[in-house]
């Protein structure tokens, strides 16, 4: 004998199965174009039956140093993006129709331009005789050109520019989802605007912050062309070493080991970001 | 006006990313001798009359503007002369060449061969020998007279400088003077890569042109330590040194001569000094067993024509090695060509064999050196 509860459970299970079937094509696609190559990559790195490639990738100070440097740069890019993006997202979430249109236009226009073109544009702007240094000199603010290019600051400027939209949009989206009555209630109960922001709005926007940070961080870690062109050779990212191994030395197993180390490091830091923001939300 | 140059690579020598140039002639000949003993004796068509004309031959090259220039200067002349259509394909692909030869019926009549692969193609007996009764190489420099490889255009990594910073020939000549920051002040740029730079460092340290190889890495890196604080930019793409010279980001830079050539011809205050330049060539071959090998040899014959080579070089600076070519080049262009006899004499041929053997080791050391603070 089936009780009404049983049939309800069966319906729920059926619905679940149906939903799962809907996701099957996407999962298959991901499996074929993502999971399978990643597994192949892993297999390739241990092709010779030893862990020698991983030993070299994780114990050799050269590769450790580059990995550490890449993580450092990715973290800096993430931090700067967050500092710049939050106010923009906050303003967008409070702006009128025209403000949003203007803000979106300003954010999306560069977003649709090739990374390469934008990187070359920075070369023109930031050079010793570039537009920025000329302005500063003409304005009498500096005597000698600032070293804005071919060093870490050039790389940071270029990467933040490319990655900023990835931080703005998630934060903007989560700010929009917050019920405006909540901060109104906080203010109605006597909290000054800054306290209502710190205690109500900001914690509620943390999912967006977390998503934005994770996106920017992960994308930064794999960045290639911007650091190669704006770093003047002084900034080496893991992706550059991987490319070298693949293209020049045809040492694909070692490239695979480096990629795997990068992937693991990325996942670890991704998990860490999730944990920190989740912790902050519950606090 | 700053100009935005694209992310691209030097044609010819550097298509594979530039780690490696061509092997020395002796190595190629040694390998060719090994491969040649296995090959059957060849019938020379010059005595037996030409085989029937096909309606087309297939030429595989790197594509893009390189191929369109080849068509403009060589293929069109070949088509006119023989009434055979030249169909071009791309890209240059060693794996495909190997598979085609193994299949016994290569689609390509002629193919360009990238970097160190020329050497391997000869070792693996993938190419027909060059028929010197058709392709007359007498008088060509020794390194162009190879048994199975037709040596095409020459390019060089040389010293570019701004003529307003160093007027009236007061520029540094060669790498010892490039290293001399007191006599020749100003920001400099070198490539972020050990290839060429190790050679330049040795030349700067007083090593003779013919004593560069095998490279003494310790000595080269010690010398590089000296110049390092004065290198404003370590460039990665072929467009960079040219653009940095135009933007006055630097006043001296190593770079691919074709880039500097383009600027000089357009009147930019940039010129090239070839002292101690690193020469490379492009390599071509006829896949073994291809149907119209004879007509492939005829294409090489067209490509050795000094008048055509001169027209090509006048436009692109990448001159072929026919010794008569230079006399058909306008006089003001001659000093800008890496293959001009006066320039050839002060440069060296990059040793592909050394780089094939030691490239990975040199690169790893280079990365380490780069990361030292």
From TrEMBL, chain A:
<feature type="transmembrane region" description="Helical">
    <location>
        <begin position="20"/>
        <end position="42"/>
    </location>
</feature>
<keyword id="KW-0813">Transport</keyword>
<feature type="transmembrane region" description="Helical">
    <location>
        <begin position="62"/>
        <end position="86"/>
    </location>
</feature>
<keyword id="KW-1133">Transmembrane helix</keyword>
<keyword id="KW-1003">Cell membrane</keyword>
<keyword id="KW-0472">Membrane</keyword>
<dbReference type="InterPro" id="IPR035906">
    <property type="entry name" value="MetI-like_sf"/>
</dbReference>
<feature type="transmembrane region" description="Helical">
    <location>
        <begin position="98"/>
        <end position="123"/>
    </location>
</feature>
<comment type="similarity">
    <text>Belongs to the binding-protein-dependent transport system permease family. CysTW subfamily.</text>
</comment>
<protein>
    <submittedName>
        <fullName>ABC transporter permease</fullName>
    </submittedName>
</protein>
<dbReference type="Pfam" id="PF00528">
    <property type="entry name" value="BPD_transp_1"/>
</dbReference>
<feature type="transmembrane region" description="Helical">
    <location>
        <begin position="204"/>
        <end position="232"/>
    </location>
</feature>
<feature type="transmembrane region" description="Helical">
    <location>
        <begin position="252"/>
        <end position="273"/>
    </location>
</feature>
<feature type="domain" description="ABC transmembrane type-1">
    <location>
        <begin position="67"/>
        <end position="273"/>
    </location>
</feature>
<keyword id="KW-0812">Transmembrane</keyword>
<dbReference type="InterPro" id="IPR000515">
    <property type="entry name" value="MetI-like"/>
</dbReference>
<feature type="transmembrane region" description="Helical">
    <location>
        <begin position="155"/>
        <end position="175"/>
    </location>
</feature>
TrEMBL record, chain B:
<keyword id="KW-0813">Transport</keyword>
<protein>
    <submittedName>
        <fullName>ABC transporter substrate-binding protein</fullName>
    </submittedName>
</protein>
<keyword id="KW-0732">Signal</keyword>
<dbReference type="InterPro" id="IPR006059">
    <property type="entry name" value="SBP"/>
</dbReference>
<keyword id="KW-0574">Periplasm</keyword>
<dbReference type="Pfam" id="PF13416">
    <property type="entry name" value="SBP_bac_8"/>
</dbReference>
<comment type="similarity">
    <text>Belongs to the bacterial solute-binding protein 1 family.</text>
</comment>
